Fold:
Amino acid sequence: MGTVVARTCVACGAEPEDPAALWCPSCGPEGTLDLSYDLEAAGAALRRDLLDPATPLDSWRFRALLPVADEGPRPPLRVGPTPLLLVPAERAPAGLQRLWVKDEGRNPTASFKDRATQVAVASALERGVPGLLCASTGNAATSLAGFCAASGLRAVILVPASAPRPKLAQLLCYGAELIPVAGTYDDAFDLSLAAAPQLGLDLRSTGVNPILGEGKKTAALELMEQLGWEPPEAISVSVGDGCIISGLYKGLADLYGAGMIPRIPRLIGVQAAGSDALTQAWERGDDAPTAISAKTRADSISVDLPRDGRKALRAVRESKGCFVRVPDEDLLKAQLTLARCSGVFSEPSGAASLAGILALVERGELDPAAPVVALTTGSGLKDTDSALEAGGGVPPAIEPSLDALLARLQQQTRG
Ligand SMILES: *Cc1c(COP(=O)(O)O)cnc(C)c1O
Ligand SMILES: [Zn+2]
Structure:
């Protein structure tokens, strides 16, 4: 088990005395905590576990760097390894020679959020907590609902207004307690902070609970193992609240500290142009974001005030990466490009990672010959309306005759 040796506030550097505190008491929820381990001991344990042929091929193989017990109870849904695909250079866009796609839509509930949920649920099971609560519009809620269903835990979900219907459908089938809140996502979020302790439930609202970033970092650990511990030039991922990108950075920093990788690759944070609070803060050189009024159809990255903003900005700064904003139409285009060059079907927020890479190559800020990884964070089945629009809609039916078929095929080849 990863023994946490310190919990440090990202804003002021203080170490809260209460071991159960989720955030820094002086800074409030903006003062999210960093968990640190004895990296020398963790590195030795990790090398042992990874070499042991009896170690199952899921995220718990990295338990030496996770805040869970060695043999504690685990949720039955298993996470990882997700596929890492090399797009053949002749089919890759923008002359990319070594474009890797890591398909996080292949997790148990079809999004990256399962990485955080598995650790949060394992911790709740270990500590005998009866359930978890979160505010979310989509994938985090769905993920929590699925893992709680599988583990016999209570899942209470505060939703603001409109999530894509496939995500709501998934949620309802898992049987979570779904509570619509008349207000914004931010209203639901603030309510969740007060409600979880009151109800005796763990908090799974993104960012604030440091255990979530620890779960998200398993993608970086797994990726580096899949690449034979050889860091790529850059890793690109879409950013909303900033928990994924800061989790990735934490994983890479832990591996670097444990002597498992020789350097930390550049992290590229991709935001929708209409939801770019962190890109704006990064351009200003600020340590923390300020709230904007977000508007994008990439619902998973539509965020007014990024809740893990400080860690996300630090991740990009310290990895010598960058933030990049991409208009919605380019997100939908990237969804098609991705599906057609790699066979990976991703929701627009997931394809943003590729859209960001393409924007940087076009601006001459990324060498197309360098190895780069696009993390696709959610399945295309999560938002079928966007997928239908990106794909150009279904063409009209033909008569069931060979002539009509041949005529249509000819017409489509010409068009
Ligand atoms: C949650 C989510 C993101 C963004 O993650 P943050 O931690 O909020 O930055 C990106 N893509 C998908 C599909 C998501 O569900
Ligand atoms: Zn603080």
Observations:
- The chain has a mean pLDDT of 95.
- The pocket of zinc ion (ligand 2) is lined by residues 9, 11-12, 14, 24, 26-27, 31 (CB under 6 Å).
